Amino acid sequence: METVSADTVILSDLHLGSEASRAREALQLLRSISFKRLILLGDIFCDLNFGRLKKDHWKFLGYVRKLSNPKRQVEVVWVEGNHDRGLSQLMSHLVGVRVYREYAWEFGGFRHLAVHGHQFDRFVVNNVVLSTIGQLILLQIQKLDFTHKRFSRFLDRLNTRWLRLTPKVAAGALAHAKFRRAQRVFCGHTHEVLERSEDGVAYYNCGCWTNAQPTYITVGEEGVQIRTLAVRGEDRAEDWRPESALDESLRHDWESDLDSRYHDGVGVEP
User: Cβ of 204: how many Cβ atoms within 10 Å?
Assistant: First the structure.
């Protein structure tokens, strides 16, 4: 794995809880590179069913909590995606990370804006129930897909192209960035990497962590770079087993908090 040092690292669409999630590789990446700010750009979870989380998924969350410790001097930002709805308070309380609908920051003389991108996807916005049903069907297909998830990943790409998500999200993000007076805007949601410029605004989509070759973005003195992580194997994630006090504590706190919120009628189902 190459040595990377950046001011900001951006990951999107990890989909923890999905059979296709590459949480193990994402954790290896974060441990191997140097950065001052980490932006988790939405859809870090697949849904609110934490029973689907594997061992590697809990380990990733445990490491995010470590990074959020002020002693680390790393700013960790979580931008809400359409799959993360209802998790803002849980994230702040259990992982120590503040959750935003969009996040803006200044670096190198540029104003940067990070927004997940589902806001510019009219199908998701107008068809929440149908989108949820489609996601549940995809999760079942992933469980039955023993071809290293090739078939389910093909369906994911086909859905993106059929809905023409990539150009729609790019156009919406560029217009929003102009309104917010940002020179660079970053999105996820489409699961497809893209770089595009228009009227002095640069748009970047950082792809996802459910494909065969996961991608991420770095922002530093050398500018913005979309990077691909080489994946050597297609090992399936194991079911979660407590291997460290941090992982076990995180899961226990999470389930306890969900339990109390459900019984208190907050509206977050376990």
Answer: 24
